[in-house]
């Protein structure tokens, strides 16, 4: 196993480096110290051809100007916060409203648009990068100075682990995720519409016209939101279900997970034979099928389009601060936040 470090570009006069983690099966994962962005994941298909299975850019300028959070860590709070405001311990806080009057993905800066400190990790069992960032009190309007550590690890079982850790000197909100867009066809040969997805979930979060939770958890039974036995993504894209239509013909929904670290999320591409298993501590996964992807962005020599990739964002339920019956993502003062998501790359 080894790690290759190379210059990738600059932002605000500071160097951005790319780190490629390589295991003994030649699985490769490349990430940046900018936003902890995962730029490439290279895995074999059933014929042994190694190809990239995520969306990204070849240069720093495109990430800075065009990226719809490709591969980035999102925070302090992923998803939307209604009205860009919340109350905590009797005090009101105002956040940037960067999404039609609401706060999205931690604001226009957030964790996804900053440089992180990076330390290379290597032992006999795994290679990785430990990223760290200090978010000062008041950044993007949030209370508390938050120390965040995010560790990427790749082992020889073809498992990629993301370990999120954080603590704050004041009670605050924290809901972290990784926003990688997957496409298992390899080198973006096809869109993701015929990927088959299986999620161990009985309920999903109903959204309103602003893509905010109504507070209702809907039963997936007898709908295209039932992924318990697996279904093609295209079924939701062509569906006349009001929730599919609301988000631009597809999915942009949180699914409440029934189980954890038990193969609860599995996606595969029949043609390539690639399979991805996602397991997590988090209460839910947001399935986003790229319904709003901008057309014609230069994504590794392919022009971007709707459904070119899809996200499986493990996280807390969206806007939980305004829905007391949702699991809380309040981080208490001096409390340690810790969460683990594991991605396993397989071939059928």
CATH class: Mainly Beta
Q: Provide the β-strand percentage band.
A: 35-45%
- How many domains? The number is 1
CATH architecture: Distorted Sandwich
> In this structure, how is the largest beta sheet organized?
9 strands, antiparallel
The averaged pLDDT comes out at 97
Describe the strand arrangement of the main beta sheet, using strand numbers. Answer: 11-12-13-14-30-24-23-18-21
The best one-word shape is globular
C-alpha Rg, in Å?
A: 19 Å
CATH topology: Beta-galactosidase, Chain A, domain 5
Q: Helical content, roughly? A: under 10%
Beta strands, count: 30
N-to-C CA distance: 24 Å
The helix tally amounts to: 3
Low-confidence segments, ≥5 residues, pLDDT <50? none
Structural class: mainly beta
EC number: 5.1.3.3
Keywords: Carbohydrate metabolism, Isomerase
Catalytic activity: alpha-D-glucose = beta-D-glucose
Enzyme class: isomerase
Could you walk me through the main structural features you see in this protein, from its secondary elements to its overall organization?
With 348 residues, this protein is mainly beta. It has a single domain (2-347), classed as Beta-galactosidase, Chain A, domain 5 (Distorted Sandwich), CATH 2.70.98.10. 5% of the residues lie in helices and 45% in strands. It has three helices and 30 strands. The protein has a nine-stranded antiparallel beta sheet with strand order 11-12-13-14-30-24-23-18-21. Strands 17-28-25-22-19-20 form a six-stranded antiparallel beta sheet. Strands 1-2-3-4-5 form a five-stranded antiparallel beta sheet, with helices on one face. The longest helix is centred in the N-terminal third of the chain and has 7 residues, at 60-66. The protein starts with a strand and ends with a strand. Belongs to the aldose epimerase family. It is an enzyme of class 5 (isomerase). Keywords: Carbohydrate metabolism, Isomerase. InterPro entries: Ald1_epimerase_CS (IPR018052), Aldose_1-epimerase (IPR015443), Aldose_1/G6P_1-epimerase (IPR008183), Gal_mutarotase_sf_dom (IPR011013), Galactose_mutarotase-like (IPR047215), GH-type_carb-bd (IPR014718).
């Amino acid at each position: 196993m080894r790690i290759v470090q190379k210059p990738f570009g600059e932002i605000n006069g500071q160097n951005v480096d790319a780190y490629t983690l390589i295991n003994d099966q030649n699985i490769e994962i490349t990430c940046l110290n900018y936003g902890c962005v995962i730029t490439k994941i290279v895995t074999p298909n059933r014929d042994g051809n190694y190809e990239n299975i995520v969306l990204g850019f070849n240069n720093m300028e495109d990430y800075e100007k065009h990226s719809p959070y490709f591969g980035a860590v999102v925070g302090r709070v992923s998803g939307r916060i209604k009205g860009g405001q919340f109350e905590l311990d009797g005090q009101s806080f105002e956040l940037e409203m960067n999404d039609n009057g609401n706060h999205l993905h931690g604001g226009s800066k957030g964790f996804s648009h900053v440089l992180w400190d990076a330390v290379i990790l290597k032992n006999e069992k795994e290679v990785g990068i430990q990223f760290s960032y200090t978010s000062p009190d008041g950044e993007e309007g949030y209370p508390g100075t938050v120390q965040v550590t995010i560790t990427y690890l790749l082992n020889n079982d073809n498992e990629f682990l993301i370990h999120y850790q954080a603590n704050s000197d004041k009670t605050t909100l924290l809901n972290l995720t990784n926003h990688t867009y997957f496409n298992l066809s390899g080198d973006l040969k096809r869109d993701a519409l015929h990927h088959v997805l299986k999620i161990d979930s009985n309920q999903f979060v109903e959204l309103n016209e602003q893509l905010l939770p109504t507070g209702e958890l809907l039963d997936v039974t007898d709908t295209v939101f039932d992924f318990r036995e697996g279904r093609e993504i295209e079924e939701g894209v062509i569906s006349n279900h009001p929730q599919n239509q609301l988000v631009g013909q597809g999915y942009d929904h949180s699914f409440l997970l029934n189980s954890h670290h038990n193969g609860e999320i599995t996606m595969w591409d029949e043609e390539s034979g690639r399979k991805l298993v996602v397991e997590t501590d988090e209460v839910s996964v947001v399935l986003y099928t790229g319904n709003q992807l901008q057309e014609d962005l230069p994504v590794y020599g392919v022009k971007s389009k709707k459904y070119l990739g899809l996200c499986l964002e493990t996280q807390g339920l969206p806007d939980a601060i305004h829905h007391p019956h949702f699991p809380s993502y309040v981080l208490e003062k001096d409390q340690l936040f810790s969460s683990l998501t594991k991605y396993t790359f397989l071939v059928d």
